[in-house]
Amino acid sequence: MKNVMLLTGAGQIGMAIARRMGAGMKIVIGDKSPQHAALVAETMNRAGFDTVPVEMDLSSRDSILVLIDTARSCGEISMLVNAAGVSPSQASVEAILRVDLYGTAVLLEEVGRVISRGGVGVTVSSQSGHRLPALGEEADRLLATTPTEELLALEILQPCNIRDTLHAYQLAKRCNVKRVMAEAVKWGRRGARINSISPGIIVTPLALDEFNGPRGDFYKEMFARCPAGRPGTADEVANVAELLMRPRGSFITGSDFLVDGGATASYFYGA
Q: Which residue in 32, 102, 169, 178 is the catalytic one?
């Protein structure tokens, strides 16, 4: 049996990381759309990879457990690439919190229970979490350590305290980073590592939807004014993931890496 990579979210960023890291592995691709998962699996299989598509709903613990069981039937899970999520331009506040916040927390928790010794994972967060003002030590601790089934009951996550879908998305991505820090301690007991990457504007189909959505002009101005002067590519995110997942990144765990061409720096300190 092969070592297994678990890829959740069959989008451009996840596929770029999987192509960079998945040669010789069994890649189990989980996505809410079985058609999309099958299409990505076929594309990668035609490129020489060994993949299997699985329908998976990140908002459901039961669905996550089925995905993990499927992966374990193929071999030992040694890599996790989580690139699943929804867009604040397309999803409701409830969906964002259920998928991007709760679902990611559950996935990290459940994979952390079975990841192989020396295993490694990355979860794709977002620059949006870095735009959120400081929440304070207590709020950060609650986001990091509250039991997953109690997360959505936190006062900070109640509808009356969330302004709109962007605010919900920012909270979800801040929570992702905090959960990675807390889970890194638990993963470390198995000799495994977990980190997060917070991309800025990356050209993907989801980003194109954002460009054409209600905040499209804001996003276009953002990358026009950032030091890099352009949006990024999925392969540039994969460059960072490769460092984190290879042995040369073995001293890095529980960390978040902002990959946004300087957009966040410009947001706070640009002229």
A: 169
